[in-house]
Amino acid sequence: MQGKIIIFSAPSGAGKTTIVKHLLQVNPNLAFSISACTRDKRGRTEENGKDYYFITPEDFKQKIENDEFVEWEEVYEGAFYGTLKSEIERIWESGKHAILDVDVKGGLSIKHFYKERALAIFVKPPSVEELAKRLTARATDSASSISSRVFKAEFEMKFEDQFDEVIVNDNLQEACSKAEKLVEEFLNAEPAIV
Ligand SMILES: Nc1nc2c(ncn2[C@@H]2O[C@H](COP(=O)(O)OP(=O)(O)O)[C@@H](O)[C@H]2O)c(=O)[nH]1
Ligand SMILES: Nc1ncnc2c1ncn2[C@@H]1O[C@H](COP(=O)(O)OP(=O)(O)O)[C@@H](O)[C@H]1O
């Protein structure tokens, strides 16, 4: 089996983590690609090596110099995130397909890198106002972090046309069903020739 890549990108708060978690529950052929990042771990809700590889800015810089990333971004000021080539290889070697939750620019870079082997899906919130409401209700970010995410969202919404598919996440159940269908079709299609 040739491993493939499913990329989920969206402005923060649109629901990509929720949809990716749902897909991981229903599809045993998928494995989550754990990114490296330099931000602090969120208390007891996150685990190193499960949610992210939490590394120091120095380690991150070293990995950039060693060309270990498919892509990396300073997603928020001072917070670096990147997809490691070794992580995708690890998943493919385990006989699974990689599913990624990355920001909009990162998602397009990964699509560009893996081309037909990757499906890039943009998760669109019903509105920016709804996005702000969801981030507030999620209660994981400070008011200033929420406003910087909402500000960035206005810019990120302009990139939806560059993705292979768009899912509007208004009703979560419908969005999850659409995601399941798109992923299944992509994985069942002829293997990409690369
Ligand atoms: N470019 C890029 N972005 C990533 C990567 N991993 C995570 N992200 C994005 O970084 C952003 C910040 O995530 P985070 O603060 O952990 O939480 P979130 O707001 O709940 O998604 C999200 O948009 C993630 O999708 C990566 O490897 N590369
Ligand atoms: N369709 C939806 N309607 C209402 N709330 C939602 C919906 N989808 C997700 N949420 C909630 O919105 C918040 C942001 O979702 P999350 O998956 O963390 O977004 P992202 O990973 O894109 O930042 C979470 O608290 C989640 O439970």
TrEMBL record:
Gene3D superfamilies per the UniProt record, alphabetical: Guanylate Kinase phosphate binding domain, P-loop containing nucleotide triphosphate hydrolases
Record localization: Cytoplasm
Protein name: Guanylate kinase
EC class name: transferase
SUPFAM superfamilies for the chain: P-loop containing nucleoside triphosphate hydrolases (SSF52540)
Matches recorded under CDD domains: GMPK
Encoding gene (name): gmk
PANTHER family registered for this protein in UniProt: GUANYLATE KINASE, GUANYLATE KINASE-RELATED
Lineage of origin: Bacteria, Pseudomonadati, Bacteroidota, Cytophagia, Cytophagales
UniProt domain Guanylate kinase-like: residue ranges: 3-184
Keywords: ATP-binding, Cytoplasm, Kinase, Nucleotide-binding, Transferase
